[in-house]
């Protein structure tokens, strides 16, 4: 009598799990992007109407628009420069969690200034600087913080979480660019700038609420083998180098 072969047990495949911190990061990003793009959607319009041409004088329209666009471009430029600074602070000194939390507080303070000082250009501009520092300072840290939450056990879910992460960016910015101009038109600048401030405060609270869930990668310390140090060294030593170029006839030309 022949015996039937024993059945080979099927290995149990452990199901991947989403990081517990993912909802906090995604919620934080949605609220923060709402705040930033909501403010940007009315910035030029408000600067013209509130400061550069408050009486709507036709002869001043071109100049007022030019001033408003200049301020807005400077604001955006600072916003896109600060990710470099935020990344250096996070990677070398403090880690992503502390940089995101601390700079988010500066961000919130900037929103408080823009919503409170709608009749003072210097104070309003101070708020814009703080918002640009905040929005840019956390930009390079937040997306990298998403990747830090994964390991080999759930890396197959990384693309899905990043998909939701970038969806939150687009959703927050889309809603704000519709809602905030309407609010400005119907209820004035204080409320229109106040709503982004509330959303940024909410973003900070959401991020802080997940503090026990995050995987925190410690800072690596100062690394001199990078773009910043190499570029700085090249620029500071550019004027010190003397090059001798041999010319036909064994003549030498000394170049600075």
Give an account of the 3D structure.
By secondary structure, the protein is mainly α. It contains 7 helices and 2 strands, in the order αααααααββ. The chain has helices at residues 22-52, 61-94, 96-116, 121-148, 158-187, 189-209, 227-237; strands spanning 243-247, 251-255. Strands 1-2 form a two-stranded antiparallel ribbon. A hairpin with a 3-residue loop joins β1 (243-247) and β2 (251-255). α1 packs antiparallel against α2 (61-94), α2 (61-94) crosses α4 (121-148) and α3 (96-116) packs antiparallel against α4. The chain is globular and about 90 Å long. The termini are far apart.
Percent strand: under 5%
The major β-sheet equals: 2 strands, antiparallel
Q: How many H/I helices? A: 7
- Structural class, judged by helices and strands? mainly alpha
Oligomer: single chain
Helix content: 55-70%
Regions with pLDDT < 50 over 5+ consecutive residues? none
Radius of gyration: 26 Å
Q: What's the end-to-end separation, in Å?
A: 97 Å
